[in-house]
Amino acid sequence: MRATNVSFRYRRGDPWVLSDASLDLAPGSVAEITGPNGTGKSTLLRLLAGLLRPVRGRIEERPAVIGYAPERFPSAQPFTVAAYLRHMAAVRRVAVPEELTARLGMDHLLGQKLPDLSKGSAHKVGLAQALAGEPGLLILDEPFAGLDATARAELSVIVAEVAARGGIVVASDHQGDLRSVPGVTRYEVRDGKIAEAVPIVVDDPLTTLTIKLPQSKADALAARLRAEGHEVS
Ligand SMILES: Nc1ncnc2c1ncn2[C@@H]1O[C@H](COP(=O)(O)OP(=O)(O)OP(=O)(O)O)[C@@H](O)[C@H]1O
């Protein structure tokens, strides 16, 4: 799949979010999308998923079965979890993700109404519907946020399985969990472009650094460090 010279802005007169941005994704690849806050990561993911159309440029060879999980699951819908998953599977013409709900530890949620779910549980519903049907393209916006440790570990395994089957996985991931998946390529969205980021050396042991700085500069430094792939809490 290929995005070539893609430019996008939400409205005429708005600043361009992406400008002549290109990205090549081979079958079986896992791409982590990084970048400072508000730089266009979610926009890029929606463009790749086909939910937004480039204003200029083109996206080609997109796999037929696409799974997309947004950063925030829209839980204000009058369905139970089971009914929602059945409905989405029918709309997408894929199988109901029964095995996946067990793997994500959400079988006990199936009878609950979507608006009654906690944020983490609602997030799992979004993931389960995206993972249904063995997607050839899996787009995940901050998939690990709000998940319990067991579900986080299982999701990494599922992502690796999708890639091993030849699927393309593209995800933003502030938490850094995706890096446990072998062969992840990191890309940074910055100034409207997409560039391959410096690879993280997984074997390099992590250390914790305490930094004291003026409060007013903390957010900007945290964003910069996250964009470089560091864990910041
Ligand atoms: N629906 C929308 N309408 C208009 N502008 C939007 C819309 N969604 C996002 N934007 C703008 O597009 C730019 C990129 O936003 P986007 O959400 O893609 O960034 P992001 O890198 O995912 O941010 P974050 O790290 O905070 O999640 C921002 O300036 C944002 O305000």
TrEMBL record:
Protein name per its UniProtKB record: ATP-binding cassette domain-containing protein
Molecular function GO labels: ATP binding; ATP hydrolysis activity
Keywords: ATP-binding, Nucleotide-binding, Transport
InterPro entries the record matches: AAA+_ATPase (IPR003593), ABC_transporter-like_ATP-bd (IPR003439), ABC_Transporter_VariousFunc (IPR051782), P-loop_NTPase (IPR027417)
Pfam families per UniProt: ABC_tran
Entry-linked Gene3D superfamilies: P-loop containing nucleotide triphosphate hydrolases
Start and end residues of each ABC transporter domain: 1-214
Upper taxonomic lineage: Bacteria, Bacillati, Actinomycetota, Actinomycetes, Streptosporangiales
Organism of this sequence: Herbidospora solisilvae
